[in-house]
Amino acid sequence: MSMRCTLGVDIGTSSSKGVLVAADGTLLASATQQHDVDRPRTGWVEMDGRIWWSEFVSLARELLETVPHATVEGVGVSGMGPCVLLCDGDDEPVRPAILYGVDTRASAQIGRMNDELGLDEIARVGGSQLTSQAGGPKIAWVADEEPEAWARARRLYMPASWLARKLTGAYVLDHQSASQVTPLYDVEGEAWHDPWWVQYAAPVEAPPLAWAGDVAGLVTGEAAALTGLAAGTPVIVGTIDAWTEAVSVGAHEVGDLMLMYGTTMFLVATGDETLRTPSMWTTVGAFPGTRNLAGGLSTSGALTAWLAQLTAADYPQLLAEAAESGPGARGLVTLPYFAGERTPIQDPDARGVIAGLTLEHGRGDLYRSALEATALGVRHNVETMRAAGADLRRIVAVGGGTQGELWMQIVSDATGLVQEVPEITIGASFGAAFLAAGAIARREGAPVPDITEWNPAARTITPDPAVVGVYDTLFERYLRLYEGSKGVVHELAAEQRSGA
């Protein structure tokens, strides 16, 4: 007997994940493909975009073999972003995709755009000032630095739109992703800003725009033969993983803050008005009529993974020793800027700092301090959002890091926030499957699924009032440590870039 379901696939920084989800929200099967990004130079983070499609094909086939009675009625796609994958007229990548804010190569282009367009005008049109997260300067970087590749560039893709193209032949980008190709998208007008597109992105064809849950097209015969999906299956447009992840836990309503624990950490606050602040990212939401104020740490899970590799210890060991270390890590303060930092300091030349080390400190103290560093980074973002006018009524946590109770408790203790953890935290792939289910329901005139029924809250993490004072003091030192060390750190970053 066949089972109606949707397929959701998300292309992440360190892996791609796929799920099959039944019509009632039951998770039938999941699969993962690990991959690495390329870091050919300091500040460069890129990836061969062709891997995104090959991993989709592999995941789809694995899932369909795992659940042979599944009838996939819709496909959801999602991926890291904003990314810049430029392709020629035959959809062959002209160079590897340049990834989101962890790639900091376009500093010169940011400076030039600021001079040519003006800071106020960029914020008025694009919603945000230009940072390493912005897609526009990365497009300009290819034009400036790789003229042979630029001469062949005709189309712009991100992971979700690349999968939609491969599956259906449609060339389309969702509004949310487009709003992060700053400054080439008009946030209030919800359209490409044509004068600046012509100035910085011609001869690339601006992708037609749609919303994340809209149907991009139907699976072609060629894609069906490769993936095992039925020809004619609807595929949604999709969007960036953090926003799809917010959908997966129902954290996309006005007043919600989604906190995503992953290789990097992401925060998305949803409201009904456009909030602007120089140190955060203003975007449109995944759905019409919503606006987001977003932020992101450049390292979170990546930092803990680095420490695990460095110490040759497994995570249970490190977590046990970190718990024993206690709040404040026995007198350590760490800045988590090991890959520069995105929000709210917007400093690609920031670097990691561990202050207070003695010969008595052990790996558990270091691991504890790393967890606390990411928590203090979250607090810095939350306080900046609130200062900009964000009304944060509900916090929902998601991502692989929610499996770690200690990490989540430290974040609640450091921020004073109660975190709601949903039953299913598999992330963006689940959200993509949900969006696909909604698209199918609308096409059939059926009731649209409710994410609170698909994925109800499972538990809450409450701050421990006994340690509030410890983290208040630690946060003040965290801020002072950055200001006091950045002069030396910037000199070191310049040497690293030059290969000295």
Describe this structure in words.
The chain has 2 domains: 3-244 and 429-451, ATPase, nucleotide binding domain (Nucleotidyltransferase, domain 5, 2-Layer Sandwich); 252-424 and 464-500, Nucleotidyltransferase, domain 5 (2-Layer Sandwich), CATH 3.30.420. It is 40% helix and 21% strand. The chain is built from 17 helices and 24 strands. The protein is globular, with a radius of gyration of 22 Å.
Helix-strand layout with pairing:
Elements (H helix, E strand, L loop, with lengths): L2 E9 L3 E8 L4 E8 L11 E2 L2 H17 L3 E10 L5 E3 L9 E2 L8 H11 L1 H8 L8 H11 L1 H6 L2 E3 L1 H10 L4 E2 H4 L6 E2 L4 E2 L1 H7 L8 E2 L4 E4 L2 H7 L6 E3 L2 E2 H8 L7 E6 L3 E7 L9 E4 L6 E7 L3 H11 L3 H11 L7 E3 L17 E3 L7 H25 L6 E5 L6 H11 L3 E4 L5 H17 L6 H4 L2 E5 L6 H31 L2
Parallel strand pairs: 1-5, 5-15, 9-12, 16-22
Antiparallel strand pairs: 1-2, 2-3, 4-7, 6-8, 10-11, 13-14, 16-17, 17-19, 18-19, 20-21, 23-24
Helix pairs in contact: 2-4, 10-15, 11-13, 12-13, 13-14, 13-17
